[in-house]
Structure formats: structure tokens, C-alpha cells
Batch of 2 targets.
Target 1
Amino acid sequence: MALGGNPVFRSKNYREQTRAGGATGAATTTTAQPMSAQALQDLYSQPSASPQQTGRMTYADVINKTMLSLGLVLIGAAIGWQLPMLMIVGALVGLVLGLVNAFKREPSPILIMLYAGFEGLFLGGLSGVFEGMYPGIALQAVLATFSVFAVTLVLYRSGKYRATPKMTRMFMIAMIGYGLFSLLNFGLMMFGAIDGMFGLRSGWIGLAIGAFAVLLATYSLVLDFTNISEGVRRGAPVKAAWSAAFGLTVTLIWLYVEILRILAILRGDD
């Protein structure tokens, strides 16, 4: 059973794509007819089929689409860095596109790329504001984000960090609690009930919550890796690679924002 923490991978859309791939593979197996020795030799002599030819998702396909998505985030971030007033637009449009992509039955490459671009506007504006307050913080956050990603991937590949049903249930409960706290904090800040740049997420409490959120994001990465592996193993259609790339992009953006917030709290206490 595939485990999913990222809403993209838990969506009905991604599950149906994965099941459809496995079902197609099974049908092909049951209807195959015996082949002659010469036919088998000719088959083995042919070059390897590409993902487009097989119609199946591969790791290379997921990597390529993820790199494209992250590249668009960087382009949007470069624009947002120069025009920080676009940060709000990027945040609002990115949120809407994120929800649309997460629950869309079929992945839309155009909508996924638009999401990456608008989220880039938000990240660029946010990073530019913090960079003006704490020089060097943006580079620190980028390096820390990809360091966490690399370590998580290495631990996952080594088998030392795996998703389990019990841990995933605990993760979902923690995510609900974190989401409710974030909404409460945002509401209190909007109505002026609390002061400060981060509201309740200031000082040592903010650092503790930030560290907790980073742990949640790393486990979300493990769930992303698990669902991608399951999709490849079960022969998910090649279009599912876009859903996988979108899911990874969402998690990495979340991780970056949390690390940026932690660094800002630490730098603000200097």
C-alpha cells in the first residue's frame, strides 16, 4: 500500500494514475502470446524504449520535470526579488493554483508550471525582504533546504528512513495540529491581537515550532519518495511524473519557508 502525506500523492488523481498503470501492465501480461526464439532475439536487440514509448513513469522523467518546475520557481524568485510588491500576488495565485493542481483529476503541465512561477514570485519577494534585514539569510536558507533534501534522500535510499503506517498516522495528526495553529496565529496577527513579525511564532517558541515543522517536511519528503517509488514500480502512466514533480516542489517550498523563518528568528536575536 502506498503511503501518502503530501496531499498531491494522497489525492484520488495520483492514486488512480498509479492503479491504472498497474492494471494496464497486468492486462498486457495476461494477453501476451508465446514468441519464437527469433522474435525474442529481435526484441532483445532493439534499443531501450523511452518513457514516451512505454507510456510509463520513470525516475528520470520525475527528475527532469522536477528540475523544470524548480527552474521556474527560480525564475519567478528572481522577478519577485526585484519587484517585492508582487509577493502578495504570487502567494494568493500560488495558493489557488496549488489547490487546483492538488485536486485536479488529470495533471496539467501548464497549471503546474504556472504554480511554480507564481510561488517563485512569493519566495523571491519574501526572501528579498528578509535579505534586506539580515544580509546573507537567503543563501543560507537555500543551502540549508537542499542539504536537508540531500540528507533525507540519502537516508531513504539507504533504508534508514522509511515511512510506516504508524508514523504516517502520527504525521497526519501532527499536520492537522500544525495547520490549525498556523491558522490561529495568522488570524490573531491579521486582527492585531498579537504583535511581532511572526506572532506566536517568536522567540524560543517560534524556534521549537519551526524545528517541528522542518521535521514534518522531512517526513513529507520521505512520503514523496515512497509514492514515487511505488508509482514507478507499479507502472504509473508517464503523465503521473508531473504530479510527482508538483508534489516535490510543494514540499521543498514549504521546507524553504520554514528554514527561512527559523534563520530570521535566530538572526533577530543577535
Target 2
Amino acid sequence: MRRNGWALVGVLAILALAGCGERQELETQAFVSVIGLDQGEQDHQVNVTFQISNPQVNTTQSAEAQKEPPSDIVTITAVDLLSAKELAQSSLSREITFSHLQTIIVGENLAKGDLFSHVIGSAIVDPEMRREAVLIVSKEPAEAFIHANTPTMETRPHKYYEFMEDNWRKTGFSPVSNLNTFFQRTEGELFLAAYATTERDSVGTKHDDEYLAGEVPQASGDPVQMIGSAIMQKGKMVGTLNGEETRISQLLRKKNLIETMTTTFPDPLNENYRISLIMNQSAHTEIKVNTDRTPVKIRVNVPVQVKVNSNIALEDFTTSQKRRDALKNTVKENMEQASDSLIKKLQEEYTGEPFVWYATARKNFWTVEEFEEFDWGEKFKKADVDIDYEVSIVSFGEQLRPPAFKKLKEGK
């Protein structure tokens, strides 16, 4: 028994120590936080840009790294992402790792071709490639975007993109898009990726959410603008949606990822002004799809709650039911008109929808094969879509009490 006991202790010790064989020190690793992908000069080649975080910046060791940049940026031309990762070791002393990778930026030129889906599809076999990584399409080459993105308030690249993703959930200007969702919708459904640029394209003044990245009239500040979305279908980019269309696309989904969003509508009591409202959803969007008729009938009910955020015209809505109804009808009519315009655009230009309505339609079929034969994309192009917004006003603002409105307007 004593001999067997010592043998058991020996086996357990070997098993415990064997786990240290693959141990790596943090100081020997180069942590890639951002990857950029661009079309190479030759066919079937890609330019891969690695943004490697400096772990000493903004840490307790920052005093030792005051003159060091927050990140190192290296671009390698190769046939795929993993080959570029290996080639990058020819100039980097530390071993590259994707364990902290959070963001993948794709240049629009590459995103519009067939090569992108092959490159990203082959790279996912690397166990370090995180499917939660955010996918962003840049108007310019991803390499130029990464070099130009030098935010003033945040030096750490991984934190910058993390904070931007949090902002998307609060504004809805960009979709919360990641690799996992991208791979789920590569068969034909439309997938929305965040759209960004550091370039400027002056188009004049629009309403607050009708801009696309690069169009927001910005005089100074950080160079990057992220608003709107890139439409991806079958693994490549086929178009764009502006900020308003992106917001509506998320509201029309069964489960909306936007927490709240601030937008403006025409003031129903004074056509010279617009009224600012904070909008969120009181419940999930209700979607019903009738596939037994031709054309397919789709009914969508969107419950929204609004709060008055800024009332520039100083109109009093609290003491008049008629005025409250006018405001409610204005929100309802404008949202339904904007939604109908988006549906028309998608039906005329694309074969598919980004609202995940196909998941509801699929429940009407016994097998996947039956649903595939149904050809949802083509059926959607001719579908009869009825969208109804249920608007409830929960607050008229707290800055001014109703009696103060009349005094201000009369100059008292």
C-alpha cells in the first residue's frame, strides 16, 4: 500500500507540473488589440495591419514609458491573416498573440470583394481569434484609418474601441456588430457592420441622425467619425445605411440592442422649430409573418416611449390633451414614414433584410429545406409590410414647469 501511495503522489505531481510547460511570461508577448485588413496590390493578397498595445502606458509603469508610444503599428502583405501574423515576427522581438484582440477593421475596397470572406473565414481557425471581436468597415484603407485614429482623450486603442461600442448601445448610430453575428448571416441575410472614416465629405446640414460617417459637420476634435452602417451580404459589402436608417433597423428587430436614443422631430405646434426627444422601447418589437399568402404579409408593431428632452419653441404640452396627441401623432407619423422609406430601399436594392424577420418566417416551415426552397430573400422583395409604432409619452421634461412657459414667451 505504501508503494502504491508514493506512486500515486508521483503521478499527481507530474500532472500538476505538466501544466506549466506552455507557460509564457507577459513581457514576452505582443498583444494585438486591433487588426486592419486591406486589398493587396496583387490578386489574392491582403495587407494586414497589426496595432499592438504598449502594456506599460497608463499603468503603474507609465513613468518608465513616458516617451514610448501607446501602440506599435505594423503592416504585412501576405496571402492570409495567419501568414501575416507569422511574417510579422521577422521584425518583432515579442511573440504576437490575438488573445486581447477586440476590433477588426476592414477597408471598404476589400469589403466589397469576394476575398474578404475567404480571409476572415480561414483566420477563424486560430483559437485566439475571438468571435466577439467588433467588425468595422472603414471608408478609406484600414491601414490609413488606424494610423489616423489618434484620439485625444484615450491613448489605449483597446479602450477607445470598447468605449465606442458602449456609445453605440446608447445612441444607435452604429450597429453592435461582431464576427460571430457576421458568420451567422453569410448565407444571404443582410448583416450590418459599423461604418467609420477619418475623412471628411461635406454635404451640408441635415437632421441630427441622417448623416453617414464623414458627413457630420465637425470643425475640430478627434478625426474619426462612426455613424451609419455597411450592408454586408454573402460576405461582402453591398451598400450603406445612414444613422437614421441604422437606428430604425435596430428598432425593427424583435430584440433591440439600443438602450436609449435622442432624436428630433418637427414641433407640431410651431413649424419653425424642432423638438428633441429621448426614445426607448417599453417592450420587444412584435413581428408576425404570414407565408401562406402571396405576397407575404409582414406586420410589425414597435412600442416606444418618449421623453421631451429640449423644447426650443417653449410650447406647453402638459395642460392640453390635444397638444399631447399632436406630439404623439407627429412621432408616430415620422417614424412610420422613415421606416416605410427604409423598407422600400431594401426591397428595391437588396435581396434580404437586416431585421432578422427571416427567423420568424422560418417557424412556419417544418424543415430547413422547405424554408430554403421558399427563398425568403425574393419573397421579402415583394412582401406587403405594415409597420405600426405605438407611442407613449412618459415625460415632458423637468427643466421648466408649465406656468413658466407662458411667462417666457410673453417676455415676463
